[in-house]
Each structure stands twice: as C-alpha cells, then as structure tokens.
Amino acid sequence: MAVSGTARVVVLLVYSLHNAWNCWVFLNFANYAPVERLLRVGEPEVGFINTAGFLGILITLPLVTICRRRRLLLFLAGLLNTAAAVIRYFAAVQGNYLVVVASNLFSGAAFGVLGAWPPLLAAAWPVKRRTVVTAVASLSNYVGGAVGGFCIPLVAADSAALLRLLWWQVWAATVLTALMVSWLWIPPTHPQLQASPPSITLQLLELPPQSGQLALWEELKLCASQRSIMIFGLLVGLSVQMQGCANLILGGVGFSPLAAGVGNSVYQLSAALVGMVVASQ
Q1: Which runs of E-coded beta strand occur in 124-210?
Q2: Which of 5, 94, 99, 246 is most enclosed, with most CB atoms within 10 A?
Q3: 181 burial class (0-12, 13-18, 19+ CB within 10 angstroms)?
Q4: Helix crossing, 70-94 with 97-114: angle to 10°?
Q5: What is the DSSP-derived secondary structure letter of residue 214?
Q6: C-alpha span between 191 and 262 (Å, rounded)
Q7: How many helices (H) and strands (E) does the chain have?
Q8: Which residues touch 10 (CB under 8 Å, ≥6 apart)?
Q9: How far apart are CA 201 and CA 123, in angstroms?
Q10: Is 214 left (phi over 0), alpha (psi -120 to 50) or beta?
C-alpha cells in the first residue's frame, strides 16, 4: 500500500509527539519532594516508581523482536502510553502508591515498543531521507525529556501543583489518543497481509531478504555478529538511564530541584541537537 508524502509526515509527527510525551510523563516524579508529600511515602518508594519504568522497558523489548503484527503492537503501545497518565492521576487522587507504580511500569512498557519504531517509520521514506527521519523520530523522546526536565520542577513544585499537572495530562493524553487514528496510514505487516514481509533484522541492517522471514535464533545470531549493534545498544541503554536519573544524580551532589531539572534539560536538548546535526550530514 503506497503512502503519500503528507501521510508520512503526519504519521511521523504523531509518533514524535507520543515519543516526546513518554519521556515527559516518565519525568513526572523526577522531583521527589512533591511526590513524597502527595503519596505519603519516602524517598526509596519514589525511587522504586522510577525503577518500575525501566523494568517496563525491559519487559516489552522482547515483544518487538518476536511480534510480526508490528502495527497492532504500535497501537497497543500508544494506548498504553496515554492510559498511563490517566491511571496515574486517579491513583494519585486516591493516594494509591501501588497503582502509581503500575502507571510508570506501563509508561516504560510503552517505550519498549515505541523506541523500536523510528527505523520502521523511516523505511516508508525515500532512502536519502531515512537517516534524518530516524533521528527526528528517535530524538523526539529527548526533546520531551528536555522540556519536562525544565518545566516540571517549575509547574509542580509542591504536591497540589503536581496533582494539577497530572490532571492536565489526562486531557493531553485524550488528544494524543485521538491522533493515533493517523497510524492507520502505516502499512500493515501481518504475514497474511503481505506475501513475504522481510525480517525486521534484515530491514534494520539493510540486508537483502534471504528467505522472507528469519527464525528467531537466526535473528539473534545475526545481531550478535554485528559488533556495532551491540555497542550502539549499550550506549542507548546508558543514555536512557541518564534521562531518568540525571535529576537524582544532580540533586544528590547538592543542586536544587530546579537546577537539577535545568541540568537534565540541557543534557537531553544537547543530545537531540547533536543527533540531528550528525543525521543531517
């Protein structure tokens, strides 16, 4: 199914909004003090909320590898991405700590799928634009983190302000959910709907299709043989970890919540700008 240029741009824009939103929501609890007062918990409990988000990423990453209904999985991740904010607000109103933890687990699980999609979106674009499209889609997460790192300490400085922020996020999540209808322009990838869809590994490595689909063990073996993929994956993992922990690290060495948020914002915005410059070369 051919996709028009306008449709590709709209799909990329909506995806980028979702990816940016994911990091914004992930950073809701980067400033510990308001969360502690709102949920009546201590610092270790707030830290576990953030840990649950990283666990969510690890849980869904294998699904991206083995699932062939990729567009369906993207829709489910998008719904999980927006539902997490709604669940979080109502759990916070009730002071239900465990459900708040679950909401961050859902956000992380959504990113485990969303984070794999930039090269798949780029595959629908002309070859000369794929690098830039991949960069825009990927680094939108950092833009959302940069905005969140700077704004959340400002607009959610106390528990009442944090609860108001969570309420406004419910409305934003509703809009993002409605915009997901544009993803219907993404061609389906179910094996029954395509004669012989190439393996995702072959697509990402830009290798010619050999026999349509690779067995899972063949994909893992092929990826393991590519040292650049292993190094890149390690660097991405470290970078994602820094996104979620920069506020805590900077706060631990004496910076105020606002200063730590600004530092995290500068880090993520710099990463996004450098990535775009490299991709445009």
Answers
A1: none
A2: 246
A3: exposed
A4: 160
A5: -
A6: 46
A7: 12, 0
A8: 182, 185
A9: 13
A10: beta
Residue 197 phi/psi, 5-degree rounding, is -65, 135
Residue that is written with structure tokens 């040292």 in the block: 227
Per 3-state DSSP, the chain is made up of helix, strand and coil in percentages (nearest 5) of 80, 0, 20
pLDDT band at 200 (very low <50, low <70, confident <90, very high): very low
CA dihedral 222, 225, 226, 232 (to 10 degrees): 100
Residues 85-121: tens digit of each pLDDT: 999 999 999 999 999 999 999 999 999 899 888 888 8
Tokens representing 281 are 């070369």
Residue 275 Cα distances to 193, 255, 268, angstroms: 35, 27, 11
How many other β-carbons are positioned within 10 Å of the β-carbon of residue 86? 17
